[in-house]
Design a protein that fits this description.
Elements: H1 6-17, H2 23-30, H3 34-46, E1 66-73, H4 79-91, E2 95-100, E3 107-113, H5 116-129, E4 134-139
Antiparallel strand pairs: 1-3, 1-4, 2-3
Length: 152
């Protein structure tokens, strides 16, 4: 992990709010000049601090109106099951996030689909590929807050 100073953090904050800004705009807003800012951005990319630069899309505008949080309990914790589950989840484009948890629930998935019927199709495919002890799906009625920017 590279040691980050105040200028690195300012650059990262600017990029995570709008990575489409020009190098000149970022440098000006960070209080520096273009060459040092470019060198820092390059080093932050190489170090893996900056993982990707992407466009954030509006799911509902694209017809993906249903967001489900899927709680999964498994009675099988061996390496083969875990590898099959990981491969299955990573291959499903509907899964936006997947987390292995501590506590009563083993995994939490964030799944974005068109509607309940599309969720059922996803669910049927999931359970056909991996043996799961218990699945609970929670439909998000309203997204109150969704941030991509990390608190720096």
């Amino acid at each position: 992990m590279p040691k980050l100073d105040a200028l690195d953090l300012r650059i990262l904050d600017l990029l995570q709010h709008d990575a489409s800004r020009s190098l000149e705009e970022i440098a000006r807003a960070a209080g520096s000049s273009k060459t040092p800012v470019w060198n820092r951005i390059r080093k932050l990319r190489e170090a893996g601090v900056i993982k990707a630069e992407v466009a954030l899309l509006d799911a509902e505008s694209l017809g993906l109106e249903a967001c489900f949080f899927v709680l999964i309990r498994t009675s099988d914790h061996d390496a083969d099951w875990q590898a099959r589950f990981l491969e299955t989840v990573q291959a499903r484009p509907e899964v936006l996030e997947a987390h292995r948890l501590a506590g009563d629930i083993d995994y939490l998935l964030k799944v974005r689909v068109k509607n309940a019927r599309a969720y059922d199709t996803f669910y049927q495919a999931l359970i056909s590929q991996v043996n799961i002890h218990n699945v609970t799906a929670l439909l998000s009625m309203q997204e109150i807050k969704a941030e991509t920017a990390l608190p720096l």
